Amino acid sequence: MTDLVVKKLGLQPYASVHDNMQRFTNNRTADSDDEIWVLQHLPVYTLGQAGDPGHILDAADIPVIQSDRGGQVTYHGPGQLIIYPLLDLRRYKLGVRSLVELLENVVILLLEEYGISAASRRDAPGVYVDEKKIAALGLRIRRSCSFHGLSLNVEMNLEPFKRINPCGYTGLEVTQIADFSSAVQIAPVADQLQQLLVSALEAKRTVALQNRSV
Questions:
Q1: DSSP state of 20
Q2: Beta carbons of 103 and 152 less than 8 angstroms apart
Q3: Which of 167, 186, 197, 201 is catalytic?
Q4: What percent of the chain has pLDDT over 70?
Q5: How far apart (Å, rounded) are the C-alpha atoms in residues 59 and 160?
Q6: 138-192: per-residue pLDDT in tens?
Q7: Cα–Cα distance between 204 and 4 in angstroms, integer?
Q8: How far is Cα 70 from Cα 149, in angstroms, rounded to an integer?
Q9: What is the largest distance, in Å, between two alpha-carbon atoms of the chain?
C-alpha cells in the first residue's frame, strides 16, 4: 500500500516547483506514493491555462508566468500558504469537483479554529470571508492524478492583488487571516492545514478501500 508523504519545501520560486510537479506527475506509476507539498512562493503572478492577460492591470516588477492549472490570474508571495496535493484520485474515489470541495472544506475548518466564518461558492471556486477571497484554487488532472492546488492568504502583503482582477473578477477584494487574528504565524497555520488535509484524505481512502472489499 502506498503512503501519503508530506514535504515542507519552504520559500520557493514558482517556475522550478511548477516543473517539478510536472515531472513528478509524468513519472508516476501505480506504486508511487502520493505527496502533499507545503510551501510559499517568491512574488509572482500566474495565469491559468486559459487565463486572460487582460486581467493583469499592472504587473510592474513582479514576473508573470503562464501555468497549466485551471483558473485565471492570481498572485503568490511570501506569507501566503501554498498546498499542492499530488494525488492519484482513484485511491480516494475523488473526482475533480469532489477534490475541490474537500480542499475548500479543510480551509473552512481551519478558519473556524481562528474564529473566522468562511464559505465556498459554487460559481467561483475558493473560500470567501464576507465576500472577500481568502483562499484560491487552481488544479490540473492528468491520468486521474492531481497537481497544482490551493493558496491561503495568511500574513502577506496584499497590495499586488490590487494590480490584477483576482481570479478574473473585476473589483474582487481579498483578505487574509492576519486581518482577523493579528498574532497569526504561517508555520503553525501550515501544520494545522496539513493535518486537516491528511485526515480528510485518509478518511476518503479508508472508505474507498472498504467499498472495494465489499
A1: H
A2: no
A3: 167
A4: 99
A5: 8
A6: 999 999 999 999 999 999 999 999 999 999 999 999 999 999 998 899 999 999 9
A7: 13
A8: 10
A9: 58
Q: What is the C-alpha separation between 30 and 33, in angstroms, rounded?
A: 9
**Cell (9 digits) for 154:** 495568511
Does the pTM surpass 0.90? The reply is yes
Count of residues in the chain: 214
Three-state DSSP state, 142? strand
**141: Cβ–Cβ under 8 A, 6 or more apart, which residues?**
89, 96
Residue 145 corresponds to which cell in the numbers above?
492524478
Query: Cell triple for residue 135?
Result: 483562499
Structural domains of the chain in order of their starting residue, each with its CATH number: 4-208 (3.30.930.10)
Give the list of residues 6+ apart from residue 158 with CB closer than 8 angstroms, or none.
174, 175, 176
Of the candidates 7, 63, 23, 4, the one whose C-alpha atom is nearest the C-alpha of residue 147 is 23
**Does residue 86 contact residue 34 with C-beta atoms inside 8 Å?**
yes
What is the DSSP secondary-structure string of 42-99?
-SEEEE-TT--GGGBS--TTS-EEE-SSSSSEEEE-TTEEEEEEE-BGGGTT--HHHH
What cell was used for 33? 506514493
C-alpha cell at 132: 472577500
* pLDDT of residue 214 exceeding 60: no
Contact 189, 151 (CB under 8 A): no
Q: Which of 129, 70, 79, 141 is nearest to 104 (CA)?
A: 129
Q: Is 145 a catalytic residue?
A: no
